[in-house]
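From the methods appendix. Each design record in this collection lists the tokenized structure first, followed by the designed amino acid sequence. Records were kept in a plain field format so they could be parsed without special tools. The example shown here is representative of the layout used throughout.

RECORD:
FOLD TOKENS (109 positions):
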């Protein structure tokens, strides 16, 4: 009965396109992808980490970190960007890089 009432009005159509649902879906997909990347990196024997810091067009300092590792199908590269506007010294940048390496659990690789 309730479904009949809902289907008789046009305003009750569920489209799944609200911003909250889209954001939840994007966050969930991103987490699955991050977990898969972490798994691939942990399986790799060797991991190369490349980091570079530069200002973007809005003059905010950002650091790019690239992970390169070998899988069964070839070499993979993953690039992530981090805002380091407040952490521009060598000690802070190196600490940020070590924290990123810890996030991907690849210190031993």
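DESIGN:
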């Amino acid at each position: 009965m309730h479904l009949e009432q809902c289907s008789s009005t046009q305003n009750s159509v569920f489209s799944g396109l609200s911003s909250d649902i889209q954001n939840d879906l994007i966050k969930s997909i991103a987490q699955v992808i991050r977990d898969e990347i972490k798994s691939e990196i942990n399986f790799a024997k060797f991991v190369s980490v490349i980091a570079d810091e530069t200002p973007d067009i809005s003059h905010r300092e950002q650091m790019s970190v690239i992970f390169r590792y070998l899988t069964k199908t070839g070499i993979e590269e993953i690039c992530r960007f981090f805002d380091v506007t407040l952490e521009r010294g060598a000690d802070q940048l190196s600490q940020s890089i070590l924290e990123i390496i810890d996030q991907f659990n690849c210190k031993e690789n």
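APPENDIX NOTE: The chain is about 40% helix and 30% strand.
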